[in-house]
Amino acid sequence: MGWAANRIKTIKDKKLIDFLATHTVIPKYGFPVDVVELSVLSHIDAAKNIQLERDLRLAISEFAPSSQVVANGYIWESAGLRVVRNRTWPIYWYAVCPDCKKFYIQGGTIEETPPSISCDIHGAISRRSIHRFVTPIFGFVTSKDFEPKKPGESRPKREFTTRPYFFGYKGPEEKRFSIGKFRIKSMYSSDGELAVICKGKKGVGFWVCFDCGAAFSERKRGKHKTLYGTDCSSPLRGPLHLGHTFKTDVLSISFEEPNISSRDESFWLSLLYAILEGTSQALGIKRQDLDGCLYPSEDGIMLILFDNVPGGAGHVKRIIDEENLYEVLKSALARVRNCTCGLETSCYGCLRNYENQFCHELLKRGVVLEFLKKNLGVRE
Ligand SMILES: [Zn+2]
Ligand SMILES: [Zn+2]
Ligand SMILES: [Zn+2]
């Protein structure tokens, strides 16, 4: 088979795997789904055989326009989204209710006018809180004119981060646990729905040309050039966020006792990240294969833990077991107890990591230490 035929076969196989994985014909675990490429347009030798691929969950930040990556000994810079003739990117409108922080999402179009989105509890959400994201399903591209540089002393800095949002699951299995003074309700589903969103530098979004794919991480006025260096007269649209919706294994944790009426984000996020660290430690799961977020429900704030692996991997499912949950909470307690940073703050040794940068200032190990110590009790 020639190169072209091989390439076509690869593409077909990939589509088939995507199709089968999304339709659960074959076991979903372990198959790469939703993988996109940063295509390098350069003609220099080092550009040959470069294969820069990421799952969309990561690609929306690591390949975001103006991001730099190292490959074959050079630094390459993303300059836009790949376009495919007669096809467009999926577009969604989304909003986070300013009062309860619940996440809402609905399909969108190229239309600029935001739809009205209402919170179940707090009613109409103001336009200021309604945003739009595109899913760059065809991948990203560098510009043809970009001169790749040799990486210097320091690696290029990672400029963009993402934040996950949970918005529903099907047929969750429910269990209740009594551990120490805790009464915990936990639900597990292999069919949880999440969105991960990259809001650009300081949340300002991206400006994207829907015709040529050129994209910028700040507002740009006037004409722009295509990725091939020619003039383009189409408008840049923005601000747009980059996002991706996906399904994975999800587990929720709600505390029935003690009843916590507080919706203090600082407390809940600190507890969430302590429990994620505890899960990783107690159950021997790589920390980057787990993630979480908060979700408001009638019973108060729910902690959402999910498998941060395409299609899920059966990780968080293991928490819906009394012995494992106890070990997870105990490890979470150890994590916040054994750190040496100030109780009123947090560090990379306890609750912080690269992914949760958006809330570093809110993370405090002291509140979690007090909460877990008071309620957990220690079994012998
Ligand atoms: Zn609300
Ligand atoms: Zn253009
Ligand atoms: Zn610390």
Written description of the protein model:
The protein has 380 residues and is α+β, with helices and mostly antiparallel strands. Helix content is 19%, strand content 32%. The protein is built from 5 helices and 20 strands. It has helices at 3-22, 56-62, 265-283, 322-337, 365-376, and strands at residues 35-39, 53-55, 68-71, 74-81, 91-96, 103-107, 118-119, 123-124, 130-134, 140-142, 163-169, 173-179, 182-198, 206-209, 215-216, 224-225, 231-232, 236-257, 290-297, 300-307. Strands 5, 6, 9, 11, 12, 13, 14, 15, 18, 19 and 20 form an 11-stranded mixed beta sheet that branches. Strands 2-1-10-4-3 form a 5-stranded mixed beta sheet, covered by helices on one side. Helix 3 (265-283) packs across helix 4 (322-337). The longest helix has 20 residues, at 3-22. The termini are far apart. 37% of the residues are buried. The structure holds zinc ion (ZN) (3 copies).
Please tell me what the overall shape is. globular
- Name the average pLDDT: 89
Contiguous helical run count: 5
Helix content: 10-25%
Structural class: alpha+beta
How many runs of DSSP E, i.e. beta strands? 20
Could you give the order of the helices and strands? Answer: HEEHEEEEEEEEEEEEEEEEHEEHH
Total number of domains = 3
**What is the terminal separation in angstroms?**
65 Å
The unique ligands bound to this protein are: zinc ion
Poorly predicted runs = 1-11, 20-31
Biggest sheet descriptor: 11 strands, mixed
Radius of gyration, Cα only, in angstroms?
A: 22 Å
Strand content: 25-35%
